[in-house]
Design brief:
With 193 residues, this protein is of the alpha+beta class. Strand 4 and strand 5 form a beta hairpin. Strands 1, 2, 3, 4, 5 and 6 form a six-stranded mixed β-sheet that branches. Helix 1 packs across helix 5. It is built from seven helices and six strands, in the order H-E-H-H-E-H-E-H-H-E-E-E-H. Helix content is 38%, strand content 24%.
């Protein structure tokens, strides 16, 4: 356990402050994962983990802006591979607008500004060590919180939202204009035949 007992209690108190969140966020995916069934599946975090999701946890990362979604992806690839692995010429990406309608969301900035609260924030946003952020996320997911808004660690980045797949009902997180996207993709495929 990374958190102290005082930090754990503060975390419990903070989780009671969860609030509803509705809006549009963005998700950048490689072309090979653009199928709407894949975009919001949480399969990526389940297999590889992430800042707020240990391997095995299904979560989806979203950004407040479409440009922020691209920056986050590039920085994650740098961290995992030692250099930027995304080259738009070789790996085109699709940015999906994702509509969220959640009842229980937390915002990291709302965590108390006490010594313990500031320590939790710092631990959760550590660029090199994800152990604390994964521990906090596991507690939040276990408490039934559906999402967590956190500031980007990428320079010039926007707020991000991680949603925990097991905690929201079908339709609470969905691709905006999914039917039109599928129809247009089929139209392009037919045109190329």
């Amino acid at each position: 356990m990374i958190l102290t007992p005082k930090q754990s209690q503060l975390l419990e108190d903070w989780m009671a402050m969860a609030y509803p969140l509705e809006g549009v966020f963005f998700r950048s995916v490689e072309r090979r994962y653009m199928d709407p069934d894949d975009v919001l599946s949480g399969d990526g975090t389940a297999s590889r983990g992430g800042r707020f999701a240990a391997k095995g946890m299904r979560a989806v990362y979203l950004s407040a802006t479409d440009s922020g979604a691209g920056r986050e992806t590039t920085e994650r690839k740098k961290r995992l591979g030692g250099e930027a692995l995304i080259n738009t010429a070789k790996y085109p990406r699709i940015v999906h607008a994702v509509v969220v309608s959640l009842g229980r969301v937390l915002r990291l900035r709302d965590l108390s500004s006490t010594k313990e609260g500031l320590a939790i924030r710092k631990l959760c946003l550590d660029e090199d060590d994800l152990a604390a952020s994964m521990e906090v996320a596991a507690k939040i997911e276990h408490a039934g919180v559906q999402g967590w808004v956190f500031p980007s660690v990428v320079r010039g980045g926007d707020d991000n939202l991680v949603v925990f797949c097991k905690n929201y009902a079908s339709g609470a997180v969905r691709i905006e204009n999914e039917d039109e996207f599928i129809a247009e993709t089929k139209r392009i495929a037919e045109k190329r035949r």
